[in-house]
Amino acid sequence: MKKIFLLPFLVLTSLFFQNDVSANEMSTEDVNPVEYKEMMDIVKREVLKGVEENELEKIPEVQEFKNTYKEEKIFEFVGNTEAYKMLNSKNDIELNSQNNILGYQKQLIEFEDGSFAILESKTTEVSDLNSAFNLGVTPFSGTGTEYFNTKAGKSFTNDFSYSYWGLWKVAELHLITNFTIENSNKVKITSTDHAGTKAYTPSTVDNVSTSIIINNGLDAQSRGSYRKTNGVVIDGFPIGATRYISFNTLIRIHATSGSDIYFYVQNSITE
Known about the structure:
By secondary structure, the protein is of the alpha+beta class. The chain is built from six helices and 16 strands. The chain has a domain at 91-270. The two termini are 19 Å apart.
């Protein structure tokens, strides 16, 4: 098991709350849910286009929203959005075709209040990290599974991530699994990591660890463990509601044909 890391509590005020409107001009009322949903529909559209996070604050509707409500009112509202509360539920999450397919390795989960989450699983060959490949079978086809074919000795990286948005990206969790298809009977996970995992106000993610659960057979499995707190962590002690979340990545050799080895990658989130 990898060493436990404590992630710093990151505050995003520099990105989303720098403006020229004085506090006295902002509304002291609670955030209007209708206005929030309309604004988030625009944010979602831009995120799906691939717009960078630091460009989202330039969207006129986002600027108007930030200039209308006090910072603490926005934090309070975001902390109660469905996307923010999603990983606080007791329901296991598995990528499946019931969610909207964005592409070969992405799924969008939308909520009635306008918040949303994105789950992504990207498998790349180590010798060609700029592109993922597959058999032409749509990943996440009912089971959260991607199918691939390769030759013995090839190495790969799978980056399984979950990000959720309440205006800005509130948190992003990663489980990175590096593995090699050694032969037709053996897949070996060589290392795991959580690079890219981060959280912003009003959320904290810490006590992060990754490990190898099963290895050196037809199956190999990695796991990432995360503590998510709706609040802050001071000297290792969470102040706020806390949940412990697990990411799971399973690599399984599925079949062989001559020198071709067929395998699949399956991802899930549990508590």
